Fold this sequence. Notes:
Blueprint lengths: L3 E9 L2 E8 L8 E9 L2 H9 L9 E2 L4 E8 L11 E4 L2 E2 L19 E2 L7 E4 L1 H6 L1 E3 L6 H4 L2 H14 L6 E5 L3 H12 L3 E6 L2 H10 L3 E4 L5 H7 L7 E6 L4 H9 L1 E9 L13 H6 L3 E4 L5 H13 L8 E6 L3 H9 L5 E5 L1
Parallel strand pairs: 11-12, 11-14, 12-13, 14-15, 15-16, 17-18
Antiparallel strand pairs: 1-2, 1-4, 3-5, 3-9, 3-18, 5-6, 6-10, 7-8
Amino acid sequence: xxxxxxxxxxxxxxxxxxxxxxxxxxxxxxxxxxxxxxxxxxxxxxxxxxxxxxxxxxxxxxxxxxxxxxxxxxxxxxxxxxxxxxxxxxxxxxxxxxxxxxxxxxxxxxxxxxxxxxxxxxxxxxxxxxxxxxxxxxxxxxxxxxxxxxxxxxxxxxxxxxxxxxxxxxxxxxxxxxxxxxxxxxxxxxxxxxxxxxxxxxxxxxxxxxxxxxxxxxxxxxxxxxxxxxxxxxxxxxxxxxxxxxxxxxxxxxxxxxxxxxxxxxxxxxxxxxxxxxxxxxxxxxxxxxxxxxxxxxxxxxxxxxxxxxxxxxxxxxxxxxxxxxxxxxxxxxxxxxxxxxxx
Length: 344
């Protein structure tokens, strides 16, 4: 399909332009999708504010959570047809490199990234078509399906943290990612404590199943979180969902002896943290970083959306037109709402 489309183009931090650009041309094994829903994400907000070295080239379309209709199929593409409703993830591993052979697919050295959700059309590369593209059942809306990517990432984090029934889990940050952690920890049967600076977001956390909330703007979140744990020992698992190095440090301090700190939120490149080595050694803490997703967790997350085990609609505050993307990102930056569905 030749022609022009409307899109939000990234030219550098703070420089996003709503303009016309060429509709992507599909090649061997690729799909062209007319986007029907594109969700805002904290990563997109960070991209807008400070750039993103692994995802963005100047003058390109950004955004990575989307769903839509197939309008064109490249030569040799199998398993899909024009008119199929689909959701595609934003990456695929190679399955051949050093890390893939060790089944660490999120660490793939040749990972293929795909951005371009804030536009009328997106091309899905062949490797993502084969591995991480799913047909949407009729009873699932486009915007519900578009939650697949962040849900896959958070499911990866939850499973790697080994949360068990009755565990106390402290979640730092009640933005979209933090609320996904709340929803999944609740399904695990955990006792959930959420801290955040925003009273609006803490109210959302309670709606999603948090048992206790801590206003980190009013009190020391470490001591407050510990006060809700047995004998003040600390949480079994503490999670950072903010991407702040200072909050990483606080999450580590919230954990009981033998517990686990899951550092999920990505910090600005070059950030560092300080850890008391005696605390780490004598308390036998586990500090674990988690990045992105794997095809296994994508498949599981899709099943959770399709079955209704996760109510995806609850994470979407409102629909907004593609021309108002920056307004939607600014609302997120001001901690208003959860996610916004960008409609083109």
